[in-house]
């Protein structure tokens, strides 16, 4: 892409930019805070502009609303905003299946597709997944569709609209999406992985979860900091593979 810009970033003269969705609280907020404290320019994808962590720039987006995601992508495209990392972290655990799949699957799919032209060469994309998305724990009909080697984003989009299952099934679809996108973006050196934070003490995880927000965020940040020869298309927690998908 822009070699002079790459060189400036390598010398630390220009900040890298990351967009983190669901940055208002929990794991996403900690990922945004940690990257900002390291000098990244952080765009916090939030529903309420006042909820972005300090030191980051609020970007209002509702991950359950395709028009809102398109509006964000349009704003960033108008600014010609280069993105070095995209962390699709926003997620919901409860509610009607259609809503879970809209936020957990269709949201990351539409947003990543809309922002693809802005992703820098060698950018990192992280899909924040869950151990509950393990393929072997899903119904056979879903396993068959997700493990089809011909699986496409169009098929995942259809699946998201069908919403076949709850939270775990939605995360299994997200893992498959990371695999499909990794294949598509590999020629540009972009690494796409699904990363689980483990069971974390957040509003979603509850106070009896064993892991701190910092520990959960560290697992996710591993995917942002991968070296150029790092893995792509996989499912990881704390840097260790959770599932062989290729
Ligand atoms: N906590 C765990 O134990 C655990 C385990 C495995 C995986 N995960 C995954 O980790 C990610 C973060 O979870 P968390 O524990 O930090 O959850 P959390 O504390 O409940 O926070 C969820 C975040 O997602 C945002 N969000 C929800 N719906 C949204 C929508 N329609 N549009 C935009 N943002 C939306 C929330 O924003 P608002 O403040 O606007 O609601 C909030 O920032 C999720 O993908 C979750 O599935 C969590």
Low-confidence stretches at least 5 residues in length (pLDDT < 50)? none
Give the helix proportion (percent range): 40-55%
CATH class: Alpha Beta
Q: Topology as H/E string?
A: HEHEEHEHEHHHEHEE
Give the count of structural domains.
1
CATH topology: Rossmann fold
Question: Which sheet architecture does the biggest sheet show?
Answer: 8 strands, mixed
Strand order of the largest sheet: 3-2-1-4-5-6-7-8
Q: What Rg, in angstroms, do the CA atoms define? A: 17 Å
Q: Would you count the extended β strands for me? A: 8
Shape by Cα distribution: globular
Structural class: alpha/beta
Question: Could you state the CATH homologous superfamily?
Answer: NAD(P)-binding Rossmann-like Domain
Proportion of residues in β-strands: 15-25%
User: What is the first-to-last residue Cα distance?
Assistant: 29 Å
Q: Provide mean pLDDT, rounded.
A: 95
User: What's the number of helices?
Assistant: 8
What report would you give on this structure?
The chain has a single domain (3-243), classed as Rossmann fold, CATH 3.40.50.720. Strands 3-2-1-4-5-6-7-8 form an eight-stranded mixed beta sheet, with helices on both faces. α2 crosses α8 (213-224) and α4 runs antiparallel to α6 (153-162). The two termini are 29 Å apart. With 246 residues, the chain is an alpha/beta fold. It has eight helices and eight strands. Bound molecules: NADP nicotinamide-adenine-dinucleotide phosphate. Residues 21-22, 24-28, 47, 51, 62-64, 89-92, 103, 128, 130, 196-197, 199-200, 202-205, 209 line the site of NADP nicotinamide-adenine-dinucleotide phosphate.
């Amino acid at each position: 892409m822009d070699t002079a810009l790459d060189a400036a970033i390598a010398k630390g003269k220009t900040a890298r930019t990351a967009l983190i969705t669901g940055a208002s609280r929990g794991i996403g907020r900690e990922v945004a805070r940690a990257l900002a404290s390291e000098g990244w320019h952080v765009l916090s994808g939030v529903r309420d502009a006042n909820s972005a962590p300090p030191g980051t720039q609020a970007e209002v987006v509702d991950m359950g609303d395709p028009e809102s995601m398109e509006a964000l992508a349009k704003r960033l495209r108008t600014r010609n905003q280069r993105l070095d990392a995209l962390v699709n972290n926003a997620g919901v655990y409860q509610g009607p299946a259609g809503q879970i799949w809209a936020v957990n699957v269709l949201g990351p799919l539409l947003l990543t597709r809309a922002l693809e032209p802005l992703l820098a060469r060698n950018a990192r994309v992280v899909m924040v997944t869950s151990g509950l998305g393990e393929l072997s724990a899903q119904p056979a009909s879903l396993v068959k569709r997700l493990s089809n080697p011909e699986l496409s984003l169009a098929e995942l989009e259809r699946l998201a609209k069908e919403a076949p299952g709850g939270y775990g099934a939605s995360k299994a679809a997200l893992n498959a999406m990371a695999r499909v996108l990794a294949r598509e973006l590999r020629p540009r050196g972009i690494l796409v992985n699904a990363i689980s934070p483990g069971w974390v003490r957040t509003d979603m995880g509850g106070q009896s979860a064993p892991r701190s927000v910092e520990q959960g965020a560290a697992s996710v940040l591993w995917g942002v900091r991968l070296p150029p020869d790092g893995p792509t298309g996989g499912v990881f927690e704390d840097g260790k593979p959770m599932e062989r998908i290729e």
